[in-house]
Amino acid sequence: MIRINEHYTKLKASYLFSDIAKRVSAFQEAHPEKDVIKLGIGDVTRALPTACVEAFHKAVDDMATEAGFHGYGPEQGYAFLRDAIAENDFKSRGADISPDEIFVSDGAKCDTGNIQEIFSGDATIAIPDPVYPVYLDTNVMAGRTGANNDGRYEGVVYLDCREENGFIPALPEKPVDLIYLCFPNNPTGTTITKEQLKAWVDYAKENRAIILYDAAYEAFVTDESLPRSIYEVEGAKEVAIEFRSFSKTAGFTGTRCAFTVVPKELKAWDADGNAHSVHALWNRRHCTKFNGVSYPVQKAAAAVYSEEGKAQVKGLVDYYLNNAAIIRKEMAALGYELVGGDNSPYIWINGKCDSWEFFDLLLTKAGVVCTPGAGFGSCGNGFIRISAFNSLENVEKAMARIREALN
Ligand code: MLT
């Protein structure tokens, strides 16, 4: 009799964003006359930058010729893209990352979910609360946690992010092995300073831990004093893996391209205390389970680094940041305390009531979809997250409806 992986039975029945999508569909079926504006899942709505579209078209045309055809590419990504990433995203900001430390993939969701499998099954994990659910759920699937009691899994070191600590978690009180951090943060939209990040890097060094740093929203950092990469902090190459994505930066949620940086210095140990290269482990995994991102998509992604591409990406980011500023202003005027939205596309709002109740209220009274904070962890209860990823027109319409519903 084939048995299931019983760790899956510890998970909530469905993934947060699928759960929300189901509730919204049910509402729309029951009220087909209502127009619903989605400010829930962080899915971009604007067209791809023209520079990316042109490169994409050209690469498809290449594929139609014998001379320009590409079959399997290097699993880690084409040199033209890895070189452009290393130069523009890291070297130009003083972070010494070389192209062969970059692994191109089809998404930061997959990479942040898959990375845990190269580490020991009994590694202790530290996970912020609230958190992007992928980090936690994939560790539950892998059996690194016990049962879920009252919304928290046994065996996980939760890093509480609350108003009292400015949503920046304190260092764990006991040693941990893997630490998940995400800045600009999903879901709270908060950012971290270089000094605060340095404390985590030092902690990881002292404890021989590894930081899994999700920087998928770095393009939204406009405050130049803030780090956009953990490698801007000295010594981080010895202790951190960084995840990046073109999804939110350049509108690639439907096109799929991202990358993970695994520095060559990074070590993890076996049971006998021998050090192993984490880069070699991830490379082994990547080559075994992944055949690379398609050539046209990598060409489209590389165009992000052309002069036109940079200007167009900045235009996209500024557009969503303007939406975020409107959401902040409107919700603050209604008397809500909030964070995020200035260096981030997400605004985290204290609704002062049950998150799902607030979610239902906005959906039924205003026809606006948000994400209930409780879906990101127990510290998220009482909060909702509003995403700035929609058109300016829809954001203005949504805010007018919310004003009317809540006033
Ligand atoms: C979110 O809304 O948190 C993100 O869009 C989810 C994701 O990127 O997978």
List its salient traits.
binds D-malate, 2 domains, aminotransferase, alpha/beta, Aspartate Aminotransferase, domain 1, single chain, Aspartate Aminotransferase, domain 2, PyrdxlP-dep_Trfase_small, EC 2.6.1.83, 407 residues, LL-diaminopimelate aminotransferase
Question: What would you say this structure looks like, in words?
Answer:
- This is LL-diaminopimelate aminotransferase.
- Residues 34-402 form the Aminotransferase class I/classII large domain.
- It catalyses: (2S,6S)-2,6-diaminopimelate + 2-oxoglutarate = (S)-2,3,4,5-tetrahydrodipicolinate + L-glutamate + H2O + H(+).
- This protein is of the alpha/beta class and 407 residues long.
- It folds into two domains: 6-47 and 308-406, Aspartate Aminotransferase, domain 1 (Alpha-Beta Complex); 53-305, Aspartate Aminotransferase, domain 2 (3-Layer(aba) Sandwich).
- The protein is 37% helix and 15% strand.
- It contains twelve helices and 17 strands.
- Helix 3 (79-90) packs parallel to helix 9 (295-302).
- The termini are far apart.
- The structure holds D-malate (MLT).
- D-malate is lined by residues 41-43, 109, 132, 186.
- D-malate (MLT) is lined by residues 41-43, 109, 132, 186.
Which percent range fits the helix content? 25-40%
Total number of helices: 12
Q: What number of structural domains do the residues give? A: 2
Radius of gyration: 21 Å
Q: Largest beta sheet: what is the strand line-up?
A: 2-10-9-8-7-3-6
What is the highest CATH level, the class of the largest domain? Alpha Beta
Distance between the termini: 59 Å
Described by strand count, sense and barrel closure, the largest sheet is: 7 strands, mixed
Shape: globular
Cofactors, ions and other ligands in the entry = D-malate
* Tally of DSSP β-strands: 17
CATH-derived architecture of the largest domain: 3-Layer(aba) Sandwich
The ordered string of helix (H) and strand (E) elements is HEHHEHEHEEEEHEEHEEEHHHEEHEEEH
Looking at this structure, what is the CATH superfamily of the largest domain?
A: Type I PLP-dependent aspartate aminotransferase-like (Major domain)
Low-confidence stretches: none
Mean pLDDT figure:
97
How does the helix and strand content classify structurally? alpha/beta
CATH fold group of the largest domain: Aspartate Aminotransferase, domain 2
